[in-house]
Amino acid sequence: MPSPYQILKNVHRKFRIGLKEQFRPEISQKKVRAFIKSKRRIHKPNSFPTSKPSVAIVVPCYGHAPFLEEMFESICKQTVPASEVIFVVDHSPDDSLQILQNLISKYQPTIKSQFVLLQNEINLGQAASLNKGIEHSNTDLIMILNDDDYLMHDCIEVTHKILQKYPDAALLGGHSLHFSGEKLKHTTKLIESICPAEKIEIDFRHPEKVKTYRKYNDINMTHSGSSFYKSAWECIGGYYPDKSKRLVHFSDRDFQLRMNALFPVTLSNITPLSCWRNDSSVDQGVNS
What we know:
CATH class: Alpha Beta
Number of strands: 9
Shape: globular
């Protein structure tokens, strides 16, 4: 049995954690309210496309050259091809640019998607790179894919089906299958083999829900495989490169929170939309 001292120490620790969560939450509701107030006069779209909107996959690339071929494969094997695939090489210190040039040259003649390769002359970070790629797109819907992750092969097809069912949602995000090393080859790659699209459990969140968020992961979705309408991206001001303006530190979670502050969003909390590599975040804290 723990000693009285240990019991008292544990109680004191839980009390301190509770106070911190109550008075210093990870998500500042003051910042959330200020953001909502700043967007009161913007024109929000009344509706989103309801019948298979055109899709651009945007891929920010930095320091993950060894994983680009696998990532590229997941794009080429989509059961419904993207209209555009836009790679933004963020002044990567490796040979990412050359690898992508070779992959595009090899596969473009046989793939319906239009590949676009952009490069930054200096390192701008993930948020600015995403904005650059999205701005370049000519589609209704944007799907994000990190350069070391992998899309389920029917991600676009299932995304269409879910968004048709939830036409008010501006953003769809989901769970992911985690992998490392060589484990990807043994990982399931079809969403519908895990759960049929019509049976996927969806958490639909109205903007009012944001007022209850306190922790980063109160809205919990993997960045890769998430999709949102370009018109909604424009409304919330895109991704924020300036960390001091974000609601939370990380650009992807900040973006998702701000999106939900103005629009309904949908989450697939159980069924994965992508595969997330958990052993390669070379840009964490640097490029995010």
